[in-house]
Structure formats: structure tokens, C-alpha cells
Amino acid sequence: MKAETINHAVVVGVGTMGQGIVQVMAQVGIEVTVVDITREHAQKGVGVLQENLNRRVAQGKMTAHQAQAILQHVHVADGFPACGQAQVAIEAVVEDRNIKRDVFRQLDNVCPPDTVLLTNTSTLSPTDLASMTRRPQAVAGFHFMNPVPVMKLVEIVTGLDTAPETVTFARELARRLGKVPVVAREHPGGIVSRIMIAMRNEAIRIYAEGIASAQDIDQAMMLGGNWPMGPLALTDLVGVDIHLHNAESLSRDLGPCYMPPPLVKIMVRAGKLGRKTGEGFFKY
Ligand SMILES: NC(=O)c1ccc[n+]([C@@H]2O[C@H](COP(=O)([O-])OP(=O)(O)OC[C@H]3O[C@@H](n4cnc5c(N)ncnc54)[C@H](O)[C@@H]3O)[C@@H](O)[C@H]2O)c1
Question: Which of 18, 59, 151, 231 has CB atoms 3.0–4.6 Å from 92's, for a disulfide?
């Protein structure tokens, strides 16, 4: 299948990442069917996307006509049976192995046999998800960065059985969406998460040990490391809960050096999840 000819896609999970993925696909004219836990969840995710687009219009970064054109390509679905026309499916549900495995099983049941199934997972195994399907050759990781409409990179992660044609398709799809693809063989965390999660954990440790304030840690890395934003503000953007999931998952695969500091779990228990709840390491 040629990525340039794709005109129907499905995105499963319209949270932080799914909203951005829906936007970049609809922006190039692909009809996007959106599935979440329920129709109401999907509707809510699309509502947030609509607010994001309205904000861009208000800031003069997009015209109202462009925002409207994007939303016209977005279709909220009741559930998986609506995915029957999809030529490509991108899964962006929570970083939970069992939930993702179930999503892949369901996608495999409803999508045509040649539909390519991609996962936005940060730390889980595309091979494991592919094993839930009868088309492991057509499954790969397709890891966008946050915020999706802004960040240029897509990391394509090949599972054990991913076919070269699937990699070619994924590269072309990334380019069609205005992104730059890199390819990594499956290994826990790929390139970006393996490096970034270790660095974010270290920044949180410095904060939890009282060595420096959140402001100073971020300032140090922005001015001393040339980071565009500090590691703690980045954790707030990613979601403290998502960081916890991802770090725990990597620590199972790569060893205790990836264990998140206890403070991360305490912040999640307190609902301090970062930008999405108005408070994390910083207040919003
Ligand atoms: N947040 C980031 O910065 C970031 C960056 C790169 C990759 N990722 C990865 O993207 C994925 C999604 O992360 P997120 O930050 O968007 O999470 P999120 O919590 O913001 O959104 C997850 C969405 O999945 C939905 N969902 C949960 N169970 C579902 C199910 N059974 N069926 C359908 N939908 C279901 C939720 O309702 C929600 O809308 C994860 O795999 C994460 O590791 C996240």
C-alpha cells in the first residue's frame, strides 16, 4: 500500500497524543475515524482538539477556515466496528500492555487484511502487540513526539516480523504528515524514550533530594544544556502519570536504574499530573 494514496485512517485513543495525531492526519486530507473507550470519550477528545484549533485561530496561527477544514475530516465512532474502511490504524491509548493488546486484537478483527497497524507506544513492544494479530508483518511502532503538530520526529520501531514494505509505508506516511522519520530496531525505549526517561528521572531525583529548586533545575538544563525547555517542565507536558508508567515499564526491561523516584508515585496519587491537571512540578 502507498502512503500517498491513503484516504481513510483510524486513531484509537484521543488523549494528549491522539488529539495531535488526528490533527496532523486530517490536516493532509485523510478521513480520520476516532475510537476511544466510549463514544463520549472520543467526543471529549475531539472537543479538546477543537479547543486547541480555536486557540491557534485566536493566536493568528491558523485561519478559521483551515480549522474547520481539519474538523470536517474527523469522524467520531461508537467503537471498533466503524474501522472497517481504515487503510491504516494508529493506536494511542494509555501505556498499558493489556489494554493495547486488546486494542490490537480488536483492530485485527475489524480492519481489512492489508490495513497497516501502528502503535504510538513509548516503551512497549510492537512485537508483543503484533502477536495479537494475524498480520505481524504489517505492525510497527510509530512514535510521535509531544506536541504532535509541532514536533518533527517520528520514530519508527520495527518488531521482529515487521516487513520492509511496512517500514517503507511508515516512512512515507511520516513524510506525508510533514514529519522526519528515523528507524530503530525494537529494543525497550527505542532511541528517544530510552535517553529522555533516564534524564527526566535524574532531574526529578535532584529535585526530590532538595539539591535545587524546580526553576533552577530547568534553568540549568536550558542554559547549560541548550534544551528548549527544562526536564521538569517537559515531564509536566508529557504527564507525570505517563512518565511513571513509562519509567516503570523500562525499569522492568532495562533494570533498576530506570526506576522512577518515589516522589513520582506520590504526585500521581495527589493528582498532580502536570499541565493536564493544572499542577505538576510547576503550577499552570
Ligand atoms: N504524552 C506524551 O508525551 C507521549 C509522547 C509520546 C508517546 N506517548 C504514548 O502515547 C500513548 C498515549 O499517551 P497519551 O499521553 O496521549 O495518554 P492520555 O492518557 O492522554 O490518552 C489516552 C487515551 O486512551 C484512551 N483509552 C484508554 N483505554 C482505552 C481503550 N481500551 N480503548 C480506546 N481508548 C482507550 C483514554 O480514554 C484516553 O483518551 C501512550 O502509549 C504513551 O506512552 C505519549
Answer: 18
Number of domains the chain is built from: 2
Question: What is the percent of the chain with per-residue pLDDT over 70, rounded to a whole number?
Answer: 100
Q: Find the range with the poorest average confidence among 81-85, 90-94, 138-142.
A: 81-85
> For position 91, which CATH number holds?
3.40.50.720
| d(CA 156, ligand 1 centre) in Å | 18
Residue 168, amino acid: T
Q: For a substitution probing ligand 1, which of 17, 143, 191 has the most ligand atoms within 8 Å of its CB?
A: 17
Q: Which domain holds residue 200?
A: 193-276
Same domain as 86, residue 166: yes
Instruction: Give me the CATH number covering residue 246.
Output: 1.10.1040.10
Same domain? 235 vs 260: yes
- Residue after which a domain boundary falls, among 185, 217, 246: 185
State whether the beta carbon of 12 lies less than 6 angstroms from ligand 1.
Answer: yes
The residue nearest atom 3 of ligand 1, judged by CA position, is 238
Residues 159 and 89 placed together within one structural domain of the fold: yes
Same domain, yes or no: 98 and 145: yes
Q: Give 106-126 pLDDT, tens digit per residue.
A: 999 999 999 999 999 988 899
Task: Answer yes or no: is the C-beta of 45 below 6 A from any ligand 1 atom.
Answer: yes
pTM beyond 0.85: yes
| pLDDT tens for each residue of 14-40 | 999 999 999 999 999 999 999 999 999
